[in-house]
Structures are given as structure tokens and as C-alpha cells.
Design brief:
273 residues; alpha+beta; 6-stranded antiparallel β-sheet; 16% strand
């Protein structure tokens, strides 16, 4: 039997489009957001915490803690029994200390059969354009409520998540614009150069191995030169790269563990207070 859909926000189409522009629905990257789920669980004292985004049809967990199963990258229908789907309808958190006594949710099948959680707290993650892109939700097996200080801290955590999402979208837009402008400048340099030549050129500037056959036209135009078994930029090639205003740099990922992770969490708590 199919369930009714949960209500959708009034700005659902543009809201969901913005969610997709984060690139996180198909590639969740939980390592970027795990710290926020961990902080939410620690701040609230609840058993579980999860940060999710919502496309048109599904709740898509990005990072979670306290769950036995791996929820990251999974998709859950935004139906009428999905409590978290209701959180994105409002700018204020949905706080339910005991779902078994709530007029709406006391009849939820998982409450009736005893398999569900009773304490619930859901905070909307609202971006700079006032779109509720996701939620930071906490669940507790037994009834549980939050005090004013905890609520304020959790609001700050969700604000940090929203900022990270905004920066991610902005960076993707900037990167796309830079690549487009660099391609235009590349073609202006010599309109005989192709997309394949552009790909070879960018690979060379990124210190990736490119064969002399793939860089043949670049070599013919004096942009590159063969040095031994590798292909390198000439002075003309470096000038072209400078005119394109696009510098490629390797991204570094930092993994924290043990005392490093604990110190990071302590510092984040200090900044939140």
C-alpha cells in the first residue's frame, strides 16, 4: 500500500534545484559533514543524529551517527510517515519530547508497535536564500527534551552546515565560470585549438602525464615542448596559462583521529559558546 506524500514547501521546485546544485545527492561526501552530526549528538545527548538533504522525492542522509546501519547515501521516501520531512516546512525546529503523547505522531505505526523513538528534535538547515535544504535531526529511544542553551547551540551548528552548503554551491559556480572563461581565452589564442587540445593543456598544467601525440598541436603552436618522455609548457604556454587566469592546484584532504579529532571538537565547542 502506497502512503500519502508529506507536504512540500511552497518553494519546493527552486529549493530542490538548489539541493541538487550542491552535488551531494549522488556523491554524499559524509566526511565533510560528519563532525556536525557528532556535535549534534554530543550537544543534545540524544542517541542518534543525522544530517540530511531533500530532493524532490527523497530524504538523503549525508552524515549520521548512532545508527547501527550505514544510512549515508541511502534514500528514504518523503511520505506522510517521514517525520523529518515536516521539519523543512518551517524555519523553527520541530521539538517533540515524547512522540507517544504528541497529537499527530502518537499514532505513527512505529510508536504503536514500540519500535520507534520517542524523543525527537529536528532543525531545518536554511541557506542564505531562505531555502530549507535539509535537516539536522536527533532521535532518542526514550522521551527527551532540549534546554534553551542546547537549542541555541544546535541552531548554530545548523547555521554552520548551511554556510558550508552555500560556499560549496558558490565554489562550484565560480569553478564552472572560470573553466568556461579559460576555454574562451584558450580558443581566442588560436581558433584552431580544440576541446581535446584544451584538455591536454590543462592536464599538462596539472602535472599529469600527456603523450606527445595528444599534445601534438600544442607542440606545433609552440605552447608546449617535448622534454625527454614528458611534455612541458614553453614560455608561450605559461603566458597563455596566466592569461586564462586559471591555476590548478591539488586538493589536500586531512584525516583526523585520536587527540587531533578530540581537540578539533573542543575548539568547535568553544567557538559555539
Amino acid at each position: 500500500m502506497s502512503l500519502e506524500l508529506a507536504p512540500r514547501p511552497f518553494n519546493e521546485e527552486i529549493r530542490a534545484k538548489t539541493v541538487l546544485s550542491t552535488g551531494l545527492i549522488d556523491s554524499p561526501e559524509p566526511e565533510l559533514f560528519q563532525i556536525y552530526s557528532d556535535l549534534a549528538k554530543d550537544v543534545s545527548g540524544f542517541d542518534k543524529a543525522s544530517f540530511s538533504l531533500y530532493d524532490l522525492d527523497f530524504q538523503c542522509p549525508i552524515s549520521s551517527t548512532g545508527y547501527e546501519e550505514d544510512r549515508n547515501g541511502q534514500k528514504y521516501a518523503r511520505d506522510s510517515l517521514n517525520v523529518c520531512s515536516y521539519v523543512i516546512l518551517d524555519s523553527e525546529p520541530l521539538l517533540i519530547s515524547d512522540m507517544s503523547k504528541h497529537p499527530t505522531w502518537k499514532s505513527h505505526p512505529r510508536i504503536l508497535d514500540g519500535s520507534g523513538t520517542l524523543g525527537y528534535a529536528g532543525f531545518p538547515v536554511i541557506n542564505k536564500d531562505n531555502y530549507a535544504l535539509g535537516t539536522l535531526c536527533m532521535l532518542n529511544k526514550t522521551p527527551k527534551s532540549l534546554d534553551t542553551n542546547q537549542i541555541d547551540l544546535l541552531k548554530k551548528i545548523t547555521a554552520n552546515i548551511a554556510l558550508l552548503l552555500d560556499l560549496r554551491i558558490e565554489q562550484k559556480e565560480i569553478t564552472s565560470e572560470k573553466i568556461l572563461n579559460s576555454l574562451i581565452n584558450f580558443r581566442k589564442y588560436d581558433n584552431e585549438l580544440s576541446i581535446q587540445d584544451f584538455e591536454a593543456f590543462m592536464s599538462i598544467t596539472s602535472n599529469l602525464k600527456v603523450s606527445s601525440s595528444d599534445a601534438l598541436k600544442l607542440i606545433e603552436k609552440g605552447i608546449c615542448i617535448k622534454v625527454g618522455s614528458s611534455v612541458e609548457l614553453t614560455t608561450k604556454g605559461r603566458e597563455l596559462l596566466s592569461n586564462m587566469k586559471l591555476r590548478t592546484k591539488p586538493m589536500k584532504k586531512i584525516k583526523l583521529s585520536g587527540n587531533q579529532a578530540e581537540n578539533l571538537i573542543d575548539n568547535m565547542f568553544a567557538e559555539l559558546k
